[in-house]
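Figure 3 (text version): C-alpha cells given as input.
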C-alpha cells in the first residue's frame, strides 16, 4: 500500500441480537470487494428503532459478536455505542468516528436494503449522506427498485443514479454503492423464534454463538 492509498474503514452497525451468517459472510465479502482496510461491527447499545420491545443487554450482544468474529486480520468489534448514554443514533457514531479517525480515512457505512429503505426516519438522516459513503446490501424480500424510489424522491437533496446500476451519487460527493453479496435469508428474529420454539439454530450462526445462547438460556 502506498502513502497515497486511502485507508478505508467499513462501519457495520446493527442490533446483532444475535449476529448470524447473514452479517458475517456479507462483511467478509464487503471487505474483499471494496478493499477495506478495516471493518468494525458496531452493536447498538440502545437501538432507536426498537422502542418498547425487550432487547438482550448490550454486553451480551457485544460478547456474541466478539465470539462470532474471533481473530480476523481486518474485522473487529467496536463498543463505541456502549460508551455513550442514551439512544444509539448512527449520526452520532459517524460524527465521532469521523473526528477520531481524521481525514486520511474514507468511511463506508454498511447496511441492508431493509435498513436503508427506512433511512428518512433516522435522526439527522440528510447529514449522514454528507459524512461517508454507504454500502447497501441485497437482502431477500427487498429489491433495489424500492431504493431508487427512496433515494430519488424521498431523500432531500435527492441522489442521482450512477451509470450501470452500480449505485447512486449524493450531491455531497459521497456514493451509495449497491453491492451484490451472497443472499442469505437469515434474520435474528427467526433465530430468536426458533430458540423459543425449541428448534435447531445450528448452521445459521457460528457454533460458538449457538453454544453461548444455549448456555446462557437466551431467547428461550
Ligand atoms: P432482526 O431480525 O432482529 O431485525 P436482523 O437479522 O435484521 O435482526 P440487525 O442486527 O437488525 O439483524 O441487522 C444489522 C444490519 O445487517 C442491517 O443493516 C440489516 O439490514 C443487515 N442484515 C441483517 N441480516 C442480513 C442478511 N441476511 N443479509 C444482508 N444484510 C443483513
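Below: residues designed for each position.
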Amino acid at each position: 500500500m502506498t502513502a497515497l492509498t486511502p485507508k478505508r474503514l467499513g462501519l457495520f452497525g446493527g442490533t446483532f441480537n444475535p449476529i448470524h451468517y447473514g452479517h458475517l459472510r456479507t462483511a467478509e465479502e464487503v471487505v474483499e470487494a471494496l478493499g477495506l482496510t478495516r471493518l468494525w461491527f458496531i452493536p447498538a447499545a440502545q437501538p432507536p428503532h426498537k422502542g418498547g420491545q425487550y432487547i438482550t443487554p448490550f454486553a451480551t450482544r457485544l460478547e456474541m459478536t466478539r465470539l462470532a468474529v474471533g481473530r480476523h486480520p481486518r474485522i473487529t468489534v467496536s463498543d463505541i455505542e456502549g460508551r455513550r448514554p442514551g439512544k444509539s443514533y448512527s449520526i452520532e457514531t459517524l460524527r465521532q468516528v469521523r473526528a477520531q479517525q481524521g481525514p486520511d480515512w474514507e468511511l463506508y457505512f454498511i447496511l441492508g436494503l431493509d435498513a436503508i429503505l427506512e433511512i428518512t426516519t433516522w435522526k439527522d438522516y440528510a447529514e449522514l449522506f454528507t459524512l461517508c459513503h454507504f454500502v447497501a446490501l441485497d437482502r431477500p424480500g427487498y429489491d433495489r427498485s424500492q431504493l431508487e424510489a427512496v433515494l430519488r424522491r424521498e431523500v432531500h437533496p435527492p441522489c442521482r443514479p450512477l451509470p450501470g446500476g452500480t449505485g447512486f451519487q449524493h450531491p455531497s460527493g459521497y456514493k451509495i454503492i449497491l453491492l451484490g453479496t451472497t443472499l442469505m435469508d437469515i434474520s435474528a428474529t427467526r433465530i430468536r423464534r426458533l430458540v423459543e420454539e425449541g428448534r435447531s439454530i445450528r448452521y445459521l450462526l457460528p457454533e460458538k454463538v449457538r453454544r453461548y445462547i444455549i448456555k446462557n438460556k437466551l431467547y428461550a
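The CA atoms of residues 80 and 201 lie 29 Å apart.
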